[in-house]
Automatic annotation (TrEMBL):
GO terms for biological process: ERAD pathway; protein polyubiquitination; ubiquitin-dependent protein catabolic process. The lineage of its organism: Eukaryota, Fungi, Dikarya, Basidiomycota, Agaricomycotina. Its EC number is 2.3.2.27. Keywords: Cytoplasm, Nucleus, Transferase, Ubl conjugation pathway. GO terms for cellular component: cytoplasm; nucleus; ubiquitin ligase complex. Belongs to the ubiquitin conjugation factor E4 family. Residues 1035-1109 form the U-box domain. Residues 49-68 have a biased composition (Low complexity). It holds the Pfam family U-box. SMART domains: Ubox. GO terms for molecular function: ubiquitin-ubiquitin ligase activity. This is RING-type E3 ubiquitin transferase. It comes from Tetrapyrgos nigripes. It is an enzyme of class 2 (transferase). The keyword Cytoplasm applies.
Length: 1126
């Protein structure tokens, strides 16, 4: 029909006549009858007449063609001109007074006959509210509009004949004639003036057609209820459907070209007329309604679905629906309510109307498919910030609570955060989360409906997600300008949608996990990872692997959603979390600045008081704004439902990742065997590194901020992921990722609520994999973290080892874990290296922390001298205060790290002693313990006294107790006693006696332990005498001395590259911390050294000779001192 209409449009030049020629729908012209052809000729003839009249006058002449307007009739129908002797039942809207004849018909059991011509006439009158007879119009009070012009036209076609009864053949002409009536037309036809005056004021063509459509539905329902014979009912229904199609056709074309027929002035026409009822679908968006929903000419919420279905049915062929509904969709989805500063907050919930209207539209499959065909679905050549504003779904998907885009949310819900009670804040959280949940549920419902509408619309949805990802690659960078990427709210909402899409294949039994294509990045170009760092492969290796991947089917929908969810998390959701955590750093900076401004308070009462107070208040206001922004982020990011979904997907992804490295490809049923094979599969190596990074980052975030959400599920998956990649660290190249896995383990043991040992505390003591693999994994990583390859590796390793020490402390009382330690100690070389690193750490950390405590002590003493302190300049005082704060931060960190390492040393020396007695270990261990004992109980220990030691986490009594305990643990080892005695730098008998006195005074040790300490002192003194006697060897040749330690070599070896000769114990000790030759920095392994047998024999001969020479001397001395008196 539209094609025929367009053909006729080309023949018309006048704007008034354009598009007014409409033929009956194809369904009405399947039978090429003569009346139909006649009707066609009549319309053409009449349009020509209209064209001539329009060309002579800007407004249509009332005498030639009266142009009435729409008439929303109430419920009564016009009376027909003549009534047959036996009236047939009428449709419900007509509501005639039942005649006796009709009453008698109802009494019969057999179905009443349908008088089709009479029914058709009355239906046309009741649906269109028109008549060809003046007296009928008058009798109805002009509720039925008299089509005088059409009546005159019909009479002229067949002179002398009475006006025909209204029928389907006339329906098109009746409708056109009614639509062409213009109530604003000036006319001198007094007979027709009442018709124009009775027309509803300001009624649009669309409203009139909606009224017709609604009345037709009422007639249809009444017809079905009458129970006429099936054949007659079907015939009548087919005529009604022809009427419906014609009404819908004109309604659709009116939406496209509202000026096709006369329209009232000052009314919004076209698409807004359908947008308004769509917005009414939300009860909370009623302020947007422009007319009462009960109007007979307005679409009510219960009408909209059927009306949209009728529109779709009529205009779906050849995608005609695009021209009809695309403008409606465009106006709906770019509605001003979506761009108000209040966003989701405030009393105006107009955005809900947009959601409700869109849900109604996409519920019709052809409309859903049409939406994804619109050019605004994925606008071309737009940057990321514009994409969320100019794409169809962007304005809805960007609605959120984050303060950068929606500052009103944080200002309204979280103003004055320091003054808000916890209950008040929780109430704000609950309100916002309820709103977010409503929005995100609706968004998923919409996208899910689009996906199911057709294969093309499903592909369009996937392309929408992929386009968002490709436009926001920069979001994953370190320094990102928010104005160049999509907003946090937009990407977070899309993430929630993808999580919902992923849920069906994340079942508890992992039954669909193998449907995910592991070769997706090679077989699909939807996500570009060419520039991404791989887990353990170069770009060249990844490209070669992709070329060698065997051809296979295109990835399925499950694979698309799986990998899109991963990418959206990396480029979108994870950056949103990072933006939130960055606010905590901003808060720390603000607090430091506030502390700086407050200073020592000397500005109070001085000339700078007003300025300082103003600056302080300004900083406090900034602090309040940042805290409000934090709380707005927490409303979304810590929403329990989102956290559960995020944990669920993250653990599923971790399980899938382990399955890729499991040689059997069966994990988690059964669980993978650890450690993994040394050969890392290429399919795993070429995966983007961000897959592992995002798993770790989200676990880090969730264990820190929402540990309670793991109580329902996720603990086992979390533990298995940690154990897998801590026991097999060679599968991951990036040392920072490995360290983050260790951090997650550490945070998983933090207590929260009533869980004293955190998320993983219970599992670490019970899970078979933990009992078997945790201890070896921790020891292995303790050694590996020594060399991270980064410029910050020196400090990174201390944090990692502190975390390990914390975990070991938690599991130490478990016999299974101690047994695992003893098994590891049997690998002497590995365990000795582990012990050596512990000693190195204690040495450095204790030295730094005690040194900085001394500096803190000095500054505090300086500040305590008030007179001298205030005599200094303000700049000097502030500089010293800044130095004090810096020292306190550093000292606190060093003290915690050092204490945790000492505790680790204490428990290990109690459990396994022999590795600590190795020649390359024992001397350094004894020297380190002696040195720290001097600092704690020696003559300068008073310099460690500081104000508020708890603030610095400094517990000198606990530290002294731990060091004494290490001495006691090893006191029964002769090698250790001799090593203490050999320490000429720090050891003294008085040192041990001082430690004993303080231990007694502070109640640090029991009497039995103190007695053990006294015995150790006696044994050390005896060993010292023995050593002094042995070392009195006189002049020793330089070639017998170790070049690094300057002691007599016992087992000299030659280094292969430098050819230097050192003692075996010395080079072993060196290689524990440094894998290079100390003389030329060439790589060196202990297996490469060559024993210098000849030099060893010479040294042994030299020592034997010197000892032999000493014996006569010692004998002579004894004789000289012998009592020879009688």
């Amino acid at each position: 029909m539209v094609m025929r209409l367009e053909g006729m449009r080309k023949t018309l030049t006048d704007g008034v006549c354009t598009c007014r020629l409409l033929v009956l729908p194809e369904i009405m012209s399947t039978n090429p009858s003569t009346p139909q052809d006649d009707a066609e000729r009549i319309r053409l003839k009449r349009l020509a007449k209209l064209q001539n009249s329009a060309s002579s006058s800007p407004s249509a002449s009332a005498s030639s063609t009266p142009l009435p307007s729409t008439s929303p009739a109430p419920q009564s129908a016009p009376k027909p001109v003549s009534r047959p002797p036996a009236p047939s039942p009428k449709p419900k809207p007509v509501e005639p007074s039942p005649s006796p004849a009709s009453t008698s018909v109802r009494k019969f059991k057999v179905p009443a006959k349908l008088d089709l011509p009479n029914w058709e006439h009355e239906t046309a009158v009741s649906v269109l509210k028109v008549t060809l007879e003046k007296n009928v119009a008058e009798q109805s009070g002009y509720d039925s509009v008299w089509l005088k012009g059409l009546a005159t036209e019909i009479e002229s076609e067949e002179p002398g004949k009475p006006l025909p009864r209204l029928s389907a053949d006339l329906f098109d002409r009746l409708l056109i004639a009614r639509l062409e009536i213009d109530p604003q037309t000036m006319t001198d036809d007094l007979e027709y003036l009442p018709v124009l005056a009775s027309l509803p004021p300001q009624q649009t063509v669309f409203e009139f057609l909606i009224g017709c459509w609604k009345r037709l539905n009422v007639v249809r329902a009444a017809l079905i209820k009458k129970g006429y014979p099936p054949i007659e009912t079907q015939d009548a229904l087919s005529r009604l459907e022809k009427m419906r199609e014609l009404i819908i056709s004109y309604a659709g074309l009116t939406l496209q070209e509202p000026e096709m027929f006369p329209q009232p002035q000052g009314r919004e026409l076209g698409p807004p007329e359908l947008v308004a009822p769509l917005l009414s679908l939300s009860a909370l968006s009623i302020p947007l309604l422009s007319s009462p929903s009960a109007s007979p000419n307005t679409l009510t919420p219960s009408d909209i679905e059927q009306f949209l279905q009728d529109l779709a049915l009529r205009f779906e062929p050849d995608n005609e629906i695009d021209g009809v509904l695309a403008p409606v969709v465009r106006q709906l989805l770019f509605h001003p309510s979506l761009f108000r500063q209040e966003g989701l907050g405030g009393g105006d919930a107009s955005w809900r109307g947009v959601v409700g209207g869109l849900e109604a539209l996409v519920s019709v499959k052809s409309i859903a498919a049409m939406i994804t065909r619109m050019e605004e679905w994925i606008p071309e050549n737009v940057p990321a910030p514009a994409f969320e504003v100019r794409s169809l779904m962007g304005p809805l998907c960007r609605l959120s609570v984050f303060s950068r885009e929606w500052p009103g949310i944080s200002q309204t819900y979280f103003s004055d955060p320091d003054k808000r009670s916890r209950d008040d804040v929780e109430s704000s959280y609950a309100s916002l989360r309820g709103t977010l949940k409503s929005l995100q549920n609706s968004l998923f419902k919409i996208f899910n409906t689009l996906v199911r509408a057709s294969a093309e619309s499903r592909e369009a949805v996937l392309q929408y997600f992929a386009k968002t990802i490709s436009l926001n690659v920069k979001r994953a960078g370190m320094q990102v300008d928010p104005a160049t990427v999509s907003s946090d709210g937009f990407v977070t909402n899309l993430q929630t949608i993808l999580y919902r899409f992923a849920e069906p294949f994340m079942d508890a039994n992992y039954s669909k996990i193998d449907k995910i294509d592991p070769f997706y990045y090679a077989r699909s170009k939807r996500i570009d990872v060419h520039e991404e760092t791989r887990i353990k492969a170069t770009s060249e290796e990844a490209a070669k692997w992709a070329e060698e991947v065997p051809p296979g089917p295109a990835p399925n929908f499950i694979s698309d959603i799986f990998y899109l969810t991963i990418a959206m998390s990396h480029y979108g959701y994870q950056k949103t979390i990072q933006n939130y955590t960055d606010l905590a750093k901003v808060m720390d900076d603000i607090q430091r600045h506030l502390d700086f401004l407050n200073g020592d308070g000397s500005w109070m009462g001085g000339p700078l008081q007003a300025r300082t107070e103003a600056a302080i208040n300004n900083v406090k206001n900034q602090q309040s704004k940042v805290r409000s922004a934090q709380m707005a982020y927490e409303a979304q990011l810590l929403d329990p439902e989102l956290v559960y979904r995020s944990i669920g997907f993250t653990n599923f992804l971790g399980t899938w990742l382990i399955r890729q490295v499991d040689p059997k490809k069966t994990h988690p049923n059964p669980t993978v065997e650890l450690p993994l094979a040394k050969d890392v599969p290429m399919a795993f190596r070429v995966l983007p590194e961000y897959i592992v990074e995002d798993i770790i980052d989200y676990l880090h975030f969730s264990t820190n901020h929402a540990p309670d959400k793991f109580e329902l599920s996720g603990k086992n998956e979390l533990l298995l992921f940690i154990l897998t990649f801590l026991t097999s660290t060679w599968y991951i190249k990036n040392p920072f990722l490995k360290s983050k896995i260790n951090d997650v383990l550490f945070m998983g043991t933090w207590g929260y609520g009533r869980e004293r040992n955190g998320i993983l505390g219970g599992l670490l003591h019970s899970h078979p994999m933990a009992l078997k693999h945790l201890m070896p994994a921790l020891m292995h990583f303790y050694i590996e973290v020594e060399q991270t390859g980064a410029s910050s590796q020196f400090y990174d390793k201390f944090n990692a080892r502190r975390n390990i020490a914390f975990v070991l402390k938690i599991i130490w009382n478990n016999p299974s874990h101690r047994e695992a330690l003893n098994r590891e100690a049997q690998n002497v070389d590995k365990f000795v290296r582990f012990v050596n690193l512990m000693i190195n750490d204690v040495t450095y950390l204790m030295d730094e922390s005690l040194s900085e405590l001394g500096q803190i002590h000095n500054i505090q003493m300086e500040m305590d001298d008030k007179e001298t302190w205030y005599s200094k300049s303000l700049e000097h005082r502030r500089e010293r205060e800044g130095s004090l704060r810096t020292l306190e931060r550093h000292a606190s960190s060093y003290i915690v790290l050092g204490r945790s390492t000492v505790e680790l040393l204490k428990v290990f020396t109690a459990e396994t002693k022999q590795p600590f007695m190795m020649p390359e270990i024992v001397d350094r261990l004894a020297a380190m313990l002696d040195y720290n004992l001097v600092a704690l109980v020696g003559p300068k220990y008073q310099e460690l006294k500081v104000r508020d030691p708890q603030k610095l986490r400094f517990d000198p009594r606990g530290l002294l107790s731990d060091i004494i305990q290490v001495f006691l643990n090893l006191s029964d080892q002769p090698e250790f006693v001799r090593a203490i005695a050999s320490d000429g730098r720090s050891y003294s008998k008085e040192l041990f006696e001082s430690a004993e006195r303080i231990a007694i005074k502070r109640g640090l040790k029991t009497e039995a332990e103190l007695e053990k300490l006294r015995m150790l002192t006696v044994m050390v003194e005896e060993a010292k005498l023995t050593i002094e006697a042995e070392e009195d060897l006189g002049e020793i040749p330089d070639e017998f001395l170790d070049p690094l330690m300057f002691t007599v070599m016992k087992n000299p070896v030659i280094l292969p590259s430098s050819k230097a000769t050192v003692d075996l114990a010395t080079i072993k000790s060196h290689l524990l911390s440094d894998s290079k030759d100390p003389f030329n920095r060439s790589p060196l392994a202990i297996e490469e050294v060559v024993p210098n047998t000849e030099l060893r024999e010479r040294i042994e001969a030299f020592l034997a000779e010197r000892r032999q020479q000493k014996k006569p001397t010692e004998t002579a001395k004894e004789e000289d001192t012998m009592d020879v008196s009688p």
